[in-house]
Specification:
single chain, five-stranded antiparallel beta sheet, 2 domains, mainly beta, 14 strands, 34% strand, elongated
Length: 311
């Protein structure tokens, strides 16, 4: 999950609500004078204006008042959550809470359906967000390292293509991209290390506070060159292996573009296609068009026409 996503900032008035979520409880204020439940948190009752208000734990169950499905992220950081089911839930106490539905297929969501709370811990400091799901659903939000890993899929078959077979090499050219590679997390520590090695310590990469306040992306972003270099960590399932050469040289890039940012904490993945194959005096030149995306984002973050020379 991106570390740049906006997070709640508890105030003196709202702190009991957020502290309750950390403990797995939904706690909301109630007026001692008239019995009216209050939300959002306030110092006074919004019905009788009394200041005699106290916090109480509730079940958190309620009904779906309204919702909308969003498919375009408001920030790049939310691309990994698309589509989102943004909702207003009416608790049994009568108050309404803005939230996100999880664990529900789109065709399962119905206005008026019964819902229950889900407590999603999103930061190591215990910060917890209140989500909702169907009353009959079971949601497992255990950290990934505590969940039993699924068996690795069988390795795809790879076709060996002799570099001397000009027709077979040219047949690799395609308009279709491969399946996605593995995912790589670009966290702030990695960005900081690249800044130290490269000397590019511009604040939009290395100063999260300043980037949140002054930057155009809501937080720090990775260097374009870093994202390009990370292509080496990605296992792109090309489906072929060129054989019969003496040397293979990375000859550079015909085109290198950075169309969209990679926020700190984002996960990236890549796919590729063979763009061209050309027989030259020095050997056979293959151009591999590699696109790197933030997971879930349609627009690539890096486009790299990688030139490979087989000799």
């Amino acid at each position: 999950m991106s570390t740049n996503k906006p997070m709640p900032v508890p105030t003196e008035i709202s702190a009991p609500f957020w502290e309750g979520l950390k403990a797995g409880r939904v706690s909301i204020p109630r007026c001692n004078s008239c019995g009216h439940w209050i939300f959002y948190p306030r110092r006074h009752c919004d019905k009788c204006w009394s200041h005699d208000v106290a916090w109480h734990d509730v079940s958190g169950e309620g009904s779906l008042y309204t919702y909308t499905l969003t498919r375009i992220p408001t920030l790049p950081d939310f691309a990994d959550e698309m589509p989102q089911a943004l909702a207003v839930v009416e608790l049994d106490e009568g108050v309404r809470i803005n939230t996100t539905l999880i664990g529900l297929a789109e065709d399962e969501i119905r206005v008026g359906m019964r819902l229950k709370p889900v407590f999603e811990r999103v930061r190591d400091d215990g910060t917890t967000l209140l989500r909702f799901t169907g009353i009959d659903k079971t949601i497992d939000l255990s950290p990934a390292d505590e969940v039993a890993a699924e068996p690795a899929p069988a390795a795809p078959s790879v076709t060996k293509v002799p570099v001397s077979d000009e027709a077979a090499m040219r047949a690799l050219v395609s308009e279709t991209f491969t399946a996605w590679s593995n995912e790589v997390v670009v966290d702030q520590a990695l960005i900081d290390e690249f800044a130290r090695l490269s000397g590019d310590d511009y604040w939009i990469h290395t100063d999260p506070d300043k980037a949140r306040k002054m930057g155009p992306f809501g937080g720090t972003i990775a260097h374009g060159a870093l994202v390009q270099v990370l292509q080496s960590r990605m296992k792109i399932p090309l489906g072929f292996e060129v054989t019969g050469f003496t040397n293979m040289v990375n000859y550079g890039s015909d085109r290198l573009r950075f169309p969209s940012p990679v926020p700190a904490g984002a996960r990236i993945q890549a796919r590729a296609r063979v763009k061209s194959v050309e027989k030259m005096k020095s050997g056979t030149q293959l151009i591999l068009e590699v696109h790197t995306h933030v997971v879930g984002a349609e627009r690539p973050s890096v486009i790299n026409d990688l030139v490979i020379l087989y000799m």
